[in-house]
Amino acid sequence: MDDLGTFGIYTFDFEHQPAALMRESVRELEEQGWRAFWFPEVGGREAFTQAAVLLAATERLRVVNGITQIWSHPAHSAHGAAALLADAYPGRHVLGLGFGGEPHPGVKPLTAMREYLDELDARESAAPIRRILAAYGPKMLELARDRAAGAQTYHVNVEHTARARETLGPDAFLAVEHTVLFETDPTTARAVAREHLHTYLTTPYNIAKFRRLGYTEDDLARGGSDRIVDDLVFWGDLEAITGKLRRHVEAGADHVVVQVIGIEPGATARPFWRELGQALLR
């Protein structure tokens, strides 16, 4: 997975932007030298269709579904779509899989993912399908190591990156998403960061993840302590932000995926992507 480079771009913005703006944005990223673009599946746009649009708009850019929700895509459909993209755009699509979509009460994520991978593996493909798993805890990380190319993490601190590398071992791929905010005033930065983190600090699955990372009830209460906010959202000027992002690489990440927040409604993160590219892609 070295072809993704050390840093990539991640955004939710494409969930609501028109296709023309999406194409324009990814072409600019490719021209700047970015090698990987990541997007989630949360707002209604189907993951494989969106990946196909972005791949068709570019020539070299790697496009990663980060992540495709397994409950939204039966394994046979996901296999067929991923196999077609692998054939049409050799080496340029990465299938990220995660426990998301329609809820299935009583079904454990690890069991569901293992069974999903079994179904995928039972099907043949003429073109190699590269896949990674959304993983946080040791058991899912082990599954990502043993049954995929590696893992993607989301909203974790640098300490978690070091732990994940220990679990994955030296060879499995580790991509770490991290959110950044171009704001130097601490009060303003933390207010924007807390708004962004609200959903993550109030849902049971994420709360459990943060507790495993050593955050206390006080850290999780009242919108999040300064400690957890500063750990999960790197804010400041360009030099401060990029310096913190590189800590994930030092801790064992192969690839750091940068998500810019604090964008005004109707605006685009592209100016910040340019700044990040100038600093991180040299």
Automatic annotation (TrEMBL):
<protein>
    <submittedName>
        <fullName>TIGR03620 family F420-dependent LLM class oxidoreductase</fullName>
    </submittedName>
</protein>
<dbReference type="InterPro" id="IPR050564">
    <property type="entry name" value="F420-G6PD/mer"/>
</dbReference>
<feature type="domain" description="Luciferase-like">
    <location>
        <begin position="18"/>
        <end position="118"/>
    </location>
</feature>
<dbReference type="InterPro" id="IPR011251">
    <property type="entry name" value="Luciferase-like_dom"/>
</dbReference>
<dbReference type="InterPro" id="IPR019922">
    <property type="entry name" value="Lucif-like_OxRdatse_MSMEG_4141"/>
</dbReference>
<keyword id="KW-0560">Oxidoreductase</keyword>
<dbReference type="InterPro" id="IPR036661">
    <property type="entry name" value="Luciferase-like_sf"/>
</dbReference>
<dbReference type="Pfam" id="PF00296">
    <property type="entry name" value="Bac_luciferase"/>
</dbReference>
